[in-house]
Amino acid sequence: MDPSRARGPAGTRGSRHDRSGSIRSHVGGDVRPWPRAGPARTLGPGRRGDHRMERIIVGVDGSECSADALRWAHREARIRDATVTALLAWNFLDQHHVDDETTFDPHYGEAEAQQALDVLVQRALGDDADDVHREVVCDLPATALLGASKDADLLVVGARGLGSFRGLVLGSVSQRCLEHAACPVMVVHGTPSDGDQGRVVVGVDGSEPSALALEWALEEARLRGATLEVVHSWDVPYAAEFTFVGDAYDAAQGSATDLVDRMLVAAGLAPADVIRTVVQGSPVVVLTDAAAGADLVVVGSRGRGGFAGLLLGSVSHQVSRHAERPVVVVPDPSRAAG
User: Fold this and answer.
1) Does some domain include residue 240?
2) How far is CA 89 from CA 5, 69, 139, 292, in A?
3) What is the CA radius of gyration of the chain?
4) Does residue 198 share a domain with residue 73?
5) pTM value?
6) 282 shares a domain with 218
């Protein structure tokens, strides 16, 4: 066995995760970084594929998270040459006021909601506010956003809104959108900056949703002129992890790498075109680690680990909760058909 490949499993006892994005593991010997294929090419702007984007919907509710979501949506609209619509949901018990008052107004209506939305867009975007269409809907936030997203190509939401508890990482509105939207959903963590690293991360596992996520991420990387990092993790049963070494480990690592390569070929790519990260370990840990410092991370809505009764696979759910960068969840095609 080639000693350079005799590396222990990441995500098990003694594993360590380097902040640079390299995943290191330690099982009693030297700590070695997992190799990545590279350097990858920067994917220059190219012809649009099947993921053309014309309309982006973004939820606005007066929270700082929704302001960040609006800034990200505005930036994405420029990258994609799309229109962006800021949507504010209101009702008589959920009123938004220009002066941020919380006093109940028995005469509150659409005109007041529209005025509040205009102020919120101006606060978030300043001189770019005129680029954004505005829409107010008298309904519950999740219901309004899901209804508007039926004719959208991307739905953008903040990780938390005004109604979320501070201890929650993912608010109820963003979670419902992830579970039920028929279009891709971007969950925004943090404010966009001019210091993007020019790297888009996508998780793949051989499933159809992850193949769609790869196509979406490829288009995004091309339009941004960014490198594309394709991440795949594999694991073994806990009972076998301390004996899964040598030829068995090499065979599993090789099989996982072949899976990624087949997906790249199907997407019209070669391994040399991307950063290819194939790692033994938890897919959530591996993806969130790779997402550190990336422009955004893209996942499919249901991988092979999801139960048939769930609309959102556990991996995409956990990544959207814990990644520090924006996460785009590309839905299973069956959801749109349903």
Assistant:
1) yes
2) 55, 15, 6, 32
3) 21
4) no
5) 0.80
6) yes
Is there a contact between 59 and 53 (Cβ–Cβ < 8 Å)? Answer: no
Q: Is residue 40 part of a domain?
A: no
**What does the pLDDT profile of the chain (338 residues) look like in tens digits?**
333 332 333 333 233 333 333 332 222 223 223 334 444 555 554 434 456 799 999 999 998 999 999 999 999 999 999 999 999 999 888 888 877 667 788 888 899 999 999 999 999 999 999 999 999 999 999 999 999 999 999 999 998 755 443 333 446 888 889 888 989 999 998 777 655 568 999 999 998 889 999 999 999 999 999 999 999 998 876 555 555 666 777 888 899 999 999 999 999 999 899 999 998 888 889 999 999 889 999 999 864 443 333 334 578 878 888 888 899 999 887 665 55
CB neighbourhood size of 189 (10 A): 23
Domain final residue pick, 137, 159, 188: 188
d(CA 81, CA 84): 10
Which of 188, 203, 219 corresponds to the end of one domain?
188
> Which three-class secondary structure state does DSSP give residue 193?
coil
Q: Which residues are paired to 277 by β-bridges? A: 231
Domain count, the chain: 2
Neighbour tally for 35: CB within 10 Å:
13
Alpha helices in 102-245, H assignment, sequence order: 110-125, 141-149, 172-180, 208-224
Based on the fold, state whether residues 86 and 101 are members of the same structural domain: yes
What number of other Cβ atoms are within 10 A of residue 32's Cβ? 14
User: Residue 152 is part of which domain span?
Assistant: 55-188
Distance CA 235, CA 231 (A): 14
Token couple for 210: 């992850």
Tokens of 327: 């996460």
Task: Say how far residue 310 (Cα) sits from the centre of its chain.
Answer: 18
Q: Assign residue 225 the CATH number of its domain.
A: 3.40.50.620
Q: Are 17 and 289 in contact (CB under 8 A)?
A: yes
CA 277/CA 286 separation, integer angstroms: 9
Give the phi and the psi of residue 188 in degrees, each rounded to 5: -95, 130
> CA-based diameter of the chain, in Å?
77
List the structure tokens of 145. 């956003």
Q: Return d(Cα 146, Cα 335) in angstroms, integer.
A: 13
